[in-house]
Amino acid sequence: MSDKPMEKIVALCKRRGFIFQSSEIYGGIGGFWDYGPLGVELKRNIKDAWWRDMVSGHDNTTPPPAAPSAYEMVGLDTTIIMHPQVWKASGHYDLFYDMFVDCRACKARFRVDQVQDSACPHKPSKRPGEHSECDLTEPREFNLMFKTYIGALIDPSSEAYLRPETAQGIFVNFKNILSTSRVKVPFGVAQIGKSFRNEITPRNFTFRSREFEHMEIEFFCAPEESQDWYSYWRDRRVAWYVSLGLSSSKLRLREHDPDERAHYSCGTADIEYAFPFLSEGEFGELEGVSHRGDFDLRSHMEGKLIREGNELVVERDENGQPRHAGSGKDLSYFDDARQQKYVPHVIEPSAGADRATLAFICEAYDEDAIPDENGVPQDRVVLRLHPRIAPIKVAVFPLVKKDGQPEAAAEIYRGLKAKWNVYYDEKGSIGKRYRRQDESGTPFCVTVDHQTMDDGTVTLRDRDTTVQQRVKRTELAAVIEERIRTA
Ligand code: GAP
Questions:
Q1: Which protein residue has the closest C-alpha to ligand 1 atom 20?
Q2: Strands, DSSP E only, in 122-244?
Q3: How much is the pTM?
Q4: What pLDDT digit, counting tens, does each position of 114-146 carry?
Q5: Is the CB of 32 under 6 A from ligand 1?
């Protein structure tokens, strides 16, 4: 790809209606993004593929390749605002912060770990602290949870938080799920939903946003099997991105050093992608896979936990009471097969739907030259999205707006629409119509022409190769279905 790939990708997202700045007509609002008509389809397809592959299509009876055993998967949809004690017991209230510095001169705020990569608003552009008038404060903590109030009273008793992750909704429903769905350990609970983080410096398009969607699994297993499940989920999740088109050479699995891990973590690996806004050789986090031990369920039983040596213990106040109390409910599990009671360990593959969408767009963006109707090479921009996640699966065109071709094309369009998101277009030259679909990532274009009216065949054009094949109208859906399946 040529220079400034990220600028080109952002421009394409705007031009084709994938992603817009939120509240753009009022000048936008930092860290918030809207998905346009194509973007909403793409992101929905990614979430649907995740849900299908991880949850609804999962075979509870057979161990998937490399899994320690068969396991069950169920889904959940919990609220964005939860009881405030959830965030106190989980540790988010005390610990979910970034360190920041303010500049007293220009009033700008920077994340401490990003000062070296940030630009001071003063011109000429330098790093914060490098201008003579810069006056940076000492680093301070900034909690990333958005605060709100429940009901009419605006006082501390009505404070609540927008969730910064969907995971806690799963942990606090652990008992409900066990008692209602008859699952047995090992099993996973999946949730897709909005999360909110008041990021100090949202940046890199949608990569770091203040409102985004999580796709999270909390996988509950017996403590002695937890390392095997951790390995399984790390590899399984990398393979999922590859199966939908991310190139394995741009992905890496990076195991955290012990001193980089959260205090409760028994192991964390980031699945990282070489986003084009990063320098050569750098990678950005796409998904985290964590071995969280029994930290979460114990926190919601006993109260906020802190590490003392090798132990996680309840943090206590000066009166010896838990600093932040848990629910007091028993969240342990009786394992019939082992005849043992224990607090299950948790493996958490936690992905961001927006980051995944951005990675798939970045991977798919390409520029090449293809011959026009007269054989003259023309530059084109093409989104080589995997057909499974492409917003529009098929575009149907009549070659000309006469001779019954629009009617025949519309009939084909309606037939295919029963299965997929299909687009009908009769405006402009056929070359322009192809080009528009190439930029939208549409893998297949069907054209009705003179021959269709004679022998009932249409051309089926492949976005990536631009090769056109004549296919019988009656076989079109089956041919496309097979191509999507084997892509
Ligand atoms: N429950 C664990 C958890 O939330 P995380 O590493 O903070 O872990 C998981 O987040 C994933 O959520 C990240 O890998 C990323 O894909 C996405 N994510 C996190 N913060 C984000 C943000 N500010 N904007 C967009 N996506 C974000």
A1: 208
A2: 140-143, 147-149, 159-161, 187-196, 211-221
A3: 0.95
A4: 888 888 888 777 888 888 889 999 999 999 999
A5: no
